[in-house]
Amino acid sequence: MLGPPYNHTMDTSATFFLVGVPGLPSSHLWLAISLSAVYTIALSGNTLIVTVIWINSTLYEPMYYFLCVLAVVDIVMASSVVPKMVSIFFAGGNFINFNACFAQMYFVHSATAVESGLLLAMAFDRYVAICKPLHYRRILTPQVMLGMILAIIIRAVIAITPLYWMVSHLPFCGSNVVLHSYCEHIAVAKLACSNTMPSSLYSLIGSFIIVGSDVAFIAASYILILRAVFGLSSKNAQLKALSTCGSHMVVMALYYLPGMASVYVAWLGQDVVSLHIQVLLADLYLVIPPTLNPIIYGLKTKQLRKRIWSLLKHCLFDHTSLES
Q1: Is 178 helix (H, G, I), strand (E, B) or coil?
Q2: Per the CB 3.0–4.6 Å rule, which of 173, 240, 275, 316 could disulfide with 193?
């Protein structure tokens, strides 16, 4: 029991029990090994991206600033869930403190909202760079970029704080077993002893508004970008512009498609999609984008790729200067 019935000031020393992946206990060791490897790649890749952008003045441009913030958000997102998942799968550390559970929930949902906003900002950056190149530096000034980043963070805080408050103040008086590998909102809310429809509707409507509006504006940006690109007379210019946008489009697909699949599969319930598939989808949604984002940007962005290689050569062989 987590506390007395309908106690809205629940004892914060209470704990939840995270099952991991229901129905797949025999796979937990392999999941722990895989997650450890993926997390190491995510941390290394995103830290490398931040370091390279930070120490190279030639990368002090809007696109790289956004990419640097995206890498930090990816580190926060992965670090909010993966260490605890590995503990569950490898060492059986299934218990999580009440406050820690809701803190994890808050960071996960806030990071996903921030990441969606950053992808929109990066789409806008590409739109200005390709459709209004002569006005690029006048439009995307440092002040404008800082304002955009702050607006994205504030939007996430305003959107997620009410959800966090609603779920953390639900009365938990029954089972403390969370059928998930992290404190996912729906899985935790199901344990409450009162009506959870308000928080569930808020979550669904809020995610639909945030993600829906971001996707709509991103789609509009890329429609305008593609119109401008195919209006260019030079084939080389067309290929260069498409290559510049290619990494962004791949990253957006990796973020939005699994995310939307995870949300709507959870709403369909285990009668339609088995519970272990739901949990695995939600887990992959939080670890795959942070792992692949730095790899995609590192490979697809020529200037960033050169700087990363210079830094690695300097660190490994100590004979290549970081500055050209």
Answers
A1: strand
A2: 173
